[in-house]
Amino acid sequence: MVNPPGSTIFYAVLIAPGFVAVMTAISLAAIEDDIKQFVLLVWSLVSSLLIDTLFVGVYQLLVEPITSFSQFQSILFDPAFRIDYILLIFGTSLFVGVLYAAAIIIDIPGMFRDILQAKTQISYSRRQPWEEYLKNAEQVMVKTSDDQTYIGDVIGWSRAGREKELRISDPHRYNENEQDFEPVGGPEQLFRDNNIQRITVLKTDQFLPIRVRATRKLAAWGSRLEFWNSGDGAESDS
Q1: Does residue 51 contact residue 96 with C-beta atoms inside 8 Å?
Q2: Which domain does 42 fall in, by range?
């Protein structure tokens, strides 16, 4: 049997897919919270084990049984470097990363937590009250420090540990003379911590977090495209 071209490359192929999956999930889910390196390492190693197990299972099902660890090495490098298998492994890691991101965006851990809390009658949330309160908010009413009242649809809000900010679309301000809300003249409005006195949720939507994250990602991509189309990006490269 031909020896593989170094154990380092082989173990890199085994371990790297988990890191690819985790980083893909963090990027797609737009995770803003700081994650401890130890937690990232554990999730990456567990993901690598999952991806490698999937590959071995499919290979044994479609090609031949694998009876030893050395045989697994020879599959990837003997008689030549199997780029097709390597691409398959890393393609699987990207797919797993997308699944992770979808689970985070949909907040599957939060759903399980709510189920457990309902059964045990324990109320607990890892989120701070600010973030938990706005989690499913679709339309809100904001009372500002200058005694003005606004309503609008939630676009996004700051995460735990950051200055409180709330962004709404289609903002309307209450006119005391007309006794009704009227448009403020802009498509969006941003409220910062120092001018927010009270927030009242008028309408909720269980699927709002998905739309909020998607909207924020699309807005970020749109800003990048606008930046490059304006010519500033090209000038900065020159």
Answers
A1: yes
A2: 7-106
